């Protein structure tokens, strides 16, 4: 299948090149920052099962800081994982996962909407979805544009704006709890230079939106939209069950009074 420049590669084929890229000095530096960030952000998640989709360093477990009893890893065939499958067709029972982590899943997926629907299917009613991706509003995004003709990972992926991911999640009735970009340092594959530039991360409070990667955390909401609309209508009209009952009682009392007057 011939791909255009704006289309992400097939997820199954992208996993091994991404793993090789993350084994570089730049990739390991990013993983260090990402692991530290997630260990703080996910500490409040508890449940029986959780799953990370995509793993580019077998020594790291992004779910380690959670209170998840059974932590599963899903990846493409040939990669070290508990489950080998395609993200577009998860061999997982519905409503069984408390948390699902998408690690560059949408960046390198030919059908991101289907991937999100599969994650929604396997998550429990109050499950959480963690999306990690490359930020187009960053030096990484600029490198992505300049390397548009390259077929090398990770620059051959599709870098989505966070707002677009949020819009997709809102359609599935998810509430975004946390959204932040990270890793301000440029994509330079030199351990020495990256180490020297580590102080740049102190600018996070001011330049955080320009980080090369983003982390987005969203919770699945189970309240039907029809109920939300019904409650909104009640508030707008100012009518409650009690007020409707009192109106009905006054109406019956007026009818009785009129009948007595006619007599």
Main features:
263 residues; alpha/beta; 9 helices
Write up this protein.
There is one protein chain. By secondary structure, the chain is of the alpha/beta class. The protein has 2 domains: 11-222, Rossmann fold (3-Layer(aba) Sandwich), CATH 3.40.50; 226-262. The protein contains 9 helices and 7 strands, in the order ααββββαβααβααβαα. It has a 7-stranded mixed sheet.
Topology, pairings included?
Elements: H1 11-22, H2 25-41, E1 46-53, E2 67-75, E3 83-84, E4 97-103, H3 112-122, E5 123-134, H4 139-146, H5 162-171, E6 174-182, H6 191-196, H7 204-207, E7 213-220, H8 225-237, H9 241-262
Parallel strand pairs: 1-2, 1-4, 2-3, 4-5
Antiparallel strand pairs: 5-7, 6-7
* Sheet having the most strands: 7 strands, mixed
Number of strands: 7
Structural class: alpha/beta
Mean pLDDT: 85
**What is the helix tally?**
9
Helical residues, percent:
25-40%
Instruction: Provide the CATH topology of the largest domain.
Output: Rossmann fold
Strand content: 15-25%
Q: How many structural domains can be distinguished in the coordinates?
A: 2
Order of helices and strands: HHEEEEHEHHEHHEHH
Please state the overall shape, judged from the principal axes of the Cα atoms.
globular
CATH top level of the largest domain is Alpha Beta
Sequence of strands across the biggest β-sheet: 3-2-1-4-5-7-6
Give the low-pLDDT segments.
1-5, 225-249
The CATH architecture name of the largest domain reads: 3-Layer(aba) Sandwich
Instruction: Spell out the CATH superfamily of the largest domain.
Output: Vaccinia Virus protein VP39
For the record, give the distance between the C-alpha atoms at the N and C termini, rounded to a whole number: 89 Å
Radius of gyration: 25 Å
């Amino acid at each position: 299948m011939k791909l255009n420049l704006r289309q992400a590669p097939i997820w199954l084929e992208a996993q091994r090149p991404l793993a090789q890229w993350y084994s570089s000095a730049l990739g390991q530096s990013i993983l260090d920052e990402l692991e530290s960030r997630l260990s703080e952000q996910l500490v409040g998640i508890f449940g029986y099962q959780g799953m990370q989709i995509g793993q580019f360093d077998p020594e790291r477990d992004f779910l380690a800081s959670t209170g998840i009893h059974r932590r599963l890893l899903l990846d493409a065939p040939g990669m070290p994982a508990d489950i080998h499958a395609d993200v577009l067709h998860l061999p997982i029972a519905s409503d069984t996962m408390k948390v699902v982590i998408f690690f560059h899943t949408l960046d390198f997926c030919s059908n991101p909407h289907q991937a999100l629907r599969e994650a929604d299917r396997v998550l429990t009613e109050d499950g959480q979805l963690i999306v990690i991706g490359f930020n187009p509003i960053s030096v990484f995004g600029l490198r992505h544009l300049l390397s548009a003709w390259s077929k090398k990972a990770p620059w051959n992926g599709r870098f989505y704006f966070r707002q677009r991911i949020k819009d997709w999640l809102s359609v599935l009735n998810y509430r975004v709890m946390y959204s932040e970009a990270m890793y301000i340092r440029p994509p330079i594959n030199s351990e020495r230079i990256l180490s020297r530039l580590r102080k740049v991360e102190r600018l996070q409070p001011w330049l955080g939106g320009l980080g090369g990667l983003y982390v987005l955390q969203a919770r699945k909401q189970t309240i039907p939209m029809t109920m939300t609309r019904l409650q909104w209508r009640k508030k707008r009209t100012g009518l409650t069950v009690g007020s409707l009952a009192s109106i009905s009682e006054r109406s019956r009392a007026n009818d009785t009074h009129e009948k007595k007057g006619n007599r």
